[in-house]
Design a protein that fits this description.
4 helices; Aminopeptidase; alpha+beta; 28% helix
């Protein structure tokens, strides 16, 4: 199987949304929760697709921009890193989210995706920081983010309650410049 890691294009949007659908159904590390949604959560995928496309068109200097980097294997997107802006006062920061489908985990793809996104962010004159959060029980995520230079800022204890699960959320940041 050949795999390619690259920036997502408008032509990739259907593959990206299909990846999101599959990834949202999968468990996280050691079968644990990996998303802040109940398993039966219903998404408006058409709206999500439109919003993603619109955010990809915005320049990094404009509120609401985003960029995605994808792992493509055999004409399927199996992983992503998504950088986005939350609001105008945070245009100097990017919020990072990422996910790999189970078939692509443990093979170094996550690090390559993350390195590509960080390199892109460093090229953006207006960006100074990348922020992220991960579930505290996800030790592979901690190892990955730390290996790429992210520093832990704090832990939100009891941040999420999903069903009967109580989840601590760890917040990390990376200074780009």
């Amino acid at each position: 199987m050949s795999s390619v890691i690259r920036p997502a294009t408008f032509e990739d949007i259907t593959l990206v949304i299909e990846h999101d659908k599959r990834h949202m159904k999968e468990p996280g590390f050691n079968g644990s929760l990996s998303h802040p949604f109940l398993p039966d959560h219903e998404f408006d995928w058409d709206k999500r697709k439109e919003e993603r496309l619109l955010s990809w068109t915005k320049p990094v200097s404009e509120e609401g921009w985003s960029r995605s980097f994808i792992l493509v294997q055999d004409d399927l997107v199996l992983g992503h890193v998504h950088l986005k802006n939350l609001f105008h006062a945070t245009l100097h920061r990017a919020q990072l989210g990422m996910g790999l489908e189970m078939a692509a985990r443990g093979q170094g793809h996550g690090k390559k995706l993350l390195e590509m996104a960080i390199a892109w962010a460093r090229e953006q004159e207006s960006l100074s920081w990348i922020d992220l959060s991960y579930f505290a029980h996800n030790t592979p995520a901690k190892k990955l983010y730390t290996s790429c230079g992210f520093k832990e800022l704090f832990v939100y204890e009891d941040r999420l309650r999903i069903g009967h699960h109580v989840i601590d959320d760890v917040v990390m940041t990376l200074k780009l410049k």
